[in-house]
Automatic annotation (TrEMBL):
Assigned keywords, A-Z: Membrane, Transmembrane, Transmembrane helix
Ranges where the record places region Disordered: 348-375
GO CC, any one term: membrane
Protein name: AI-2E family transporter
Family named by the database record: Belongs to the autoinducer-2 exporter (AI-2E) (TC 2.A.86) family.
Protein topology in the membrane: Multi-pass membrane protein
Membrane-spanning ranges: 6-39, 59-81, 150-169, 205-227, 233-256, 268-284, 304-335
Localisation per UniProt entry: Membrane
Entries under InterPro entries matching the protein: AI-2E-like
Any single biological process term in GO: transmembrane transport
Amino acid sequence: MRNSNALFGLALLLFAGFLFYLLAPVLTPFFLATLLAYLGDPLVDRLQRWRLSRTTAVVTVFCGIFLFFALIVLVVIPAIGGQIDRVVGKLPNYGQWLQQSALPRLAALFDITPGEFRIDDIIAAIKDNLGSSATLLKNVLAKVTGSANWIISFVSYLVLVPVITFYMLRDWDAMVAKTAELVPRKAIGTVTLLVRRSDEVLGGFLRGQLLVMSGLGLIYAIGLTALGLDMAIAIGIFAGLVSFVPYLGLIVGMALAGGMALLQFQDVSHLVGVVAVFCIAQAIEGMVLTPKFVGDRIGLHPVAVLFAVLAGGQLFGFMGVLLALPAAAVINVFLGYCKQHYLQSDVYADDDPAPPEDPENEAAPELPPPENPEP
């Protein structure tokens, strides 16, 4: 009976996975809305403790999200576009400095003969392909919107995701309670434990690490802007986004900012300012941001995070990227639970008595020394 139930469960799981793979494009807005509702539920619960109704709290959170994206669209994106325009306009100066100063110094330093670097041709190709930020955005939109499928997907995401997120966020607690009622009573303790641990790991990573990434991106952007660096906002935001892997944001951001500083100021002294900005940001992250927002709640190794995101994107596209971290958190908790039970099992414990020694290999007993005869 148990074997038949196990086979039925395995077949049902395989069928569900196959159906999930087929319906991945359709299910993407629902999973994105579920993820947003999961992230926003603690904030809604906190607003409810301030004597707001659930619906009012959800509307308040939605207004905050709308203002956040409006700030990005109206302030951040135009600022990045202006910086791109300035950099494109300065490309001939950068190329001239590279050709006349930087490359000869490098050749003399390493005692090599530089090849024929056609810097002017490279600069012209970059300008032809990029142009201004407005032209770049226009070309991207023209290529993207040329696909009818993309337009339908974009409109469906734009309409469905906010609507689904609103209703899921409003009824989140009720849905969790209804789901808990379906769990078999004999397994409710184990399931509750695993769900609670998964929530701690996933919530600690998503909510906490997103705040840390946002804080680092803001610090990087402000510091590099104070140095007068072109592309400061874009480099700062990008370095903050990739900082979910420890030291990756530091290395990538410092390399990009250092290269931009060399091209723009054409000296080494400004590199000290770039290094200072990133060192101060790392100190703030280690002493303030990570202890406050993340603490010790994360149980996902950075390598596991990278593998989960890449594998999810390869298997299921954008929806796989969305589900990568939740799946990794659940698998991590489940493996930890299995490890704990294994360490407490008889298979791991050494309770067997020691085997008897082989009499053939047993050493002969030592004889007492002979007594001295009396004289």
